[in-house]
Request: fold
Amino acid sequence: MKKSSSLFFGKIVKIFSKKSLQERVKKSSELKEKIIHEVNEIKEIEREISLRIKTLEDIDKRLERVIEKRKVFLDPNLSLTKLSMIVGSNRTYMSNVMAKRDGFRNYINNLRLEYFCKIMEEEKGTLPETLEEGEKPMLTSREITHLALKSGFSDLRTFKRVVAKSKTIWANKIKQRIYLSLQEPEAEQKQQLYRKG
Reply:
């Protein structure tokens, strides 16, 4: 009886261990399928990200060509939506491209400031880097307004605000070369009183 009972228990242990082994194999197969599915999802996400990056790079290149050839920044009514349509993109993608360039407004205004400096030098010749004390600026307020409008700014006030706010090389050139003309009349009078006193 002892022998038959141990044989019986041995068979039961074999059956249970076979079942547990089969269950473990089944669970590992399910886990393997789940991992393969998750890996495929990750690969799909990577493909989408790669495609999006490529799309943004393509939009960026098209933007450069449009800026260079059509000089769309000269339009004082240019908007992100309008620029998106010109470039052949949607507003969301264009917004992402502009985020890399310090935002739409800053990017467009910096192009306008650069253009202002270019036409200022073309129309007035080489201007001195700075003005000596008491020296009159080489551009009148009327000329500055004309050049600002020609550069895509909607008015002189907007131009002054952008120049004052900007820290670009172009804004610095403008500040150094025509600073007195850009000051408000009250500030200019206060400066003259300060120099006399």
Q: What stands out?
A: Residues 2-70 form the longest helix (69 residues). Confidence is low (pLDDT under 50) at residues 186-197. The helical segments are 2-70, 80-87, 91-99, 104-124, 141-150, 156-165, 169-182, 185-196.
